[in-house]
Amino acid sequence: MATFKQTITPNLWFDRQAEEAAKLYTSILKNSRVGKITRASKTGFEIHGLPEGTVMTIEFEIEGQKFIALNGGPLFKFTPAISFLIACNTEEEIDAIWENLSKSGTVLMELGEYPFSEKYGWTQDRYGLSWQVMFMGGRTMKQKITPALMFVGEQCGKAEAAINFYTSVFNNVEIGNILRYGKDEEPDKEGTIKHAAFTLENQGFAAMDSALEHDFTFNEAISLMVECETQEEIDYYWEKLTSDGGQESVCGWLKDKFGVSWQVTLTGLGEMLQDHDKEKVERVTDAFLKMKKFDIRELMKAYEG
User: What is the pLDDT at residue 4?
Assistant: First the structure.
């Protein structure tokens, strides 16, 4: 179970399969549950294309860690640039998880023995989402599932810069063990990152470089959502994460200078959008669809009417 207050939540963009995926993941992994659902309103149909009342987002927890699945449509597809590493305590556990996640999916690295682990595998599940499973042996992990960022193509070699950037933006940070490529490990450049662990807001992340030829990179299919209590917080994260070449988008979305997608949002916005008063939901939806960076005063004004 997660032992931290989760501030950064992975947001997963599905093509109308969010509810199905959430139910699958919570059935495979322990300490899991399906949470709150936000349904589409009339407002914004021309953007999201969802009939009123259908599931727009669904929150779920797996191994005590929160995720959000979004019915975003076919626009963005998952890539292995961001994957989720599951730390397993027994070989039986890793076998069961692997069997369920790899079923009808695409294996990227076969489940087997590697120099870094007695048992490890990397697969894309039936929805295209990437998972790594690793037998940890006697090692203890405070976090069961770790988001892993892989820097490829134009971003290859920038993993360390990204870690330094993220740990300068967030609080409660730590840079852990860094394993680097040696001079004979071509095509990767000596000194770039083979694997590194770091912590943001007491949450564990991993990063790596890969100079192999890949036909993917970061995109909006996976974004990292930062929940903020105040306008000051929203302004801070928006400014920091869009600095030095980042890109503003709409509805609280942005890309940082490495191409990683983030959402900077208001804590409690989900509750507004789940309100039983349809008129309130319509007003709030109409308000945030017109925004890039969220304006809490305008959102509350819309909610209160």
Answer: 59
